[in-house]
Amino acid sequence: MLPTPSSISASLLTRLARRTFYTWNIPTTTPRVILSDGSTLIHRHNNYNSNNNKTPASSSTSTTATSDLEARLPPRLRPYRPRSVLTAEQIAELKSLRSEDPDTWTVVQLARKFDVAPTFVMRVAPPPKERVEVVKALERKRFEGLSIGKKMRAVDRIRRKATW
């Protein structure tokens, strides 16, 4: 049995009227501001401490400041795993492995072996010039085998990336 319009209170009618397709799952207690153009600005509350814009008074101890900042931030998306710091001997071994056989010892393989970031491997041990030429030749050959449409899309993609 549906309620008659006279049995529905005025506050319920206004609450029902404000709940649209886009706001059906937002609680009715959430603050809303009706703007001059008729649109509704919905202010959602933060799930974490509201003092997150304030910096700590003194950052004399870095561990306390870091833990204080982390306590005020939302939870991490991924767990933080600190990477190892390489010694000079390990860096020399990394460079020698990369220069001896870059096909076997790729950036990813070396990063896993030494527990470092791949960008660190690329910066410390760039590939030999012969390897760069081989990779460029393979890419050129692959590009030449593409259809005209795919070539045009690839060139357009390169142009778009250049304007970022």
Automatic annotation (TrEMBL):
Region called Disordered, residue ranges: 45-69
Molecular function terms from GO: structural constituent of ribosome
InterPro entries: Ribosomal_mL58 (IPR024388)
Annotated GO CC locations: mitochondrial large ribosomal subunit
Low complexity compositional bias, start-end: 47-67
PANTHER family: 54S RIBOSOMAL PROTEIN L20, MITOCHONDRIAL, LARGE RIBOSOMAL SUBUNIT PROTEIN ML58
Annotated protein name in UniProt: Uncharacterized protein
